[in-house]
């Protein structure tokens, strides 16, 4: 009997007591709870990521729509006026940076150029010099128009200095033919010193060096807001 008891103790040595069914069930429930918590946390992370992506995408789309709407809207136009020295202000055009001038702005610029070229204020050499400067600003440097206009002003300056006549452009009309070619028509009134006053109508055309584009230089934008640079011209009026 003693031998049998010792053998039974040796067999049980190093083993753990068997779990009861209740303990095993508790352990299973605890493991199940832990797994459920991990799964819920993963679901919450995925849901947060989805919401973040949705909100970010919505903000990006809204920003793109805002830019598109702002680009499509009319921008504020900056009008450029010139003081004619007699209490009146003359609209010179529209100033802008990196934009295409409107058709009326280009037509107005060419009309003003024609007036500056053809006007002969015989009694005011200072005004004549300013007109010449404004006209030359709108001429492409080194072009045919540049050479001819300098020669023309030499002749007109002589007439102004002699005060032999006074000429005023009374009406102009400018039509666009192509992106760089414009037809012009105008009427001018000429008074010869000590003589009669006559009125004559003329026509011609001007060709630009390139399609008009608003200058990027703010200073140039003030003097030539429409970005008109004349390369050559044809006027059927006499000197």
Molecular structure report:
There is one protein chain. This protein is an alpha+beta fold and 239 residues long. The protein folds into two domains: 15-73; 78-235, VirB8 protein (Nuclear Transport Factor 2, Chain: A). The protein has helices at residues 2-12, 21-72, 103-118, 125-137, 144-162, 218-223; strands spanning 78-83, 89-95, 165-176, 181-192, 197-208, 230-235. The radius of gyration is 44 Å and the shape is rod-shaped. The model is unreliable at 1-6, 73-77 and 94-98 (pLDDT under 50).
Over all CA atoms, what is the radius of gyration? 44 Å
Low-confidence stretches: 1-6, 73-77, 94-98
**Adjacency order of strands in the biggest sheet:** 3-4-5-6
As a percent range, the share of strand residues is 15-25%
CATH architecture of the largest domain: Roll
Mean pLDDT: 76
Class from helix and strand fractions = alpha+beta
CATH fold field value of the largest domain: Nuclear Transport Factor 2, Chain: A
**CATH H-level name of the largest domain... which superfamily?**
VirB8 protein
Per CATH, the class of the largest domain reads: Alpha Beta
Give the helix tally.
6
Largest sheet: 4 strands, antiparallel
Element-level helix/strand string: HHEEHHHEEEHE
Domain module count: 2
Distance between termini? 149 Å
Work out the number of β strands: 6
């Amino acid at each position: 009997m003693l031998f049998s008891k010792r053998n039974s103790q040796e067999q049980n040595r190093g083993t753990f007591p068997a779990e009861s069914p209740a303990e095993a069930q508790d352990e299973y429930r605890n493991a199940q709870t832990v797994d459920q918590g991990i799964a819920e946390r993963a679901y919450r992370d995925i849901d947060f990521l989805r919401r973040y992506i949705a909100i970010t995408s919505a903000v990006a789309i809204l920003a793109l729509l805002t830019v598109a709407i702002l680009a499509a809207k009319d921008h504020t136009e900056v009008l450029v006026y010139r003081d004619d020295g007699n209490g009146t202000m003359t609209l010179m055009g529209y100033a802008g940076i990196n934009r295409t001038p409107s058709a009326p702005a280009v037509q107005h610029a060419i009309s003003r150029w024609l007036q500056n070229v053809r006007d002969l204020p015989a009694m005011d050499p200072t005004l004549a010099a300013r007109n010449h400067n404004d006209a030359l600003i709108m001429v492409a440097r080194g072009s045919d128009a540049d050479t001819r206009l300098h020669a023309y002003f030499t002749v007109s300056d002589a007439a102004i200095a002699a005060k032999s006549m006074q000429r005023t452009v009374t009406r102009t009309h400018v039509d666009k033919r192509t992106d760089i070619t414009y037809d012009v028509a105008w009427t001018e009134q000429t008074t010869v010193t000590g003589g009669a006053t006559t009125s004559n109508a003329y026509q011609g055309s001007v060709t630009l060096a390139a399609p008009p584009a608003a200058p990027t230089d703010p200073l140039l934008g003030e003097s030539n807001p429409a970005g008109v640079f004349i390369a050559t011209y044809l006027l059927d009026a006499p000197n």
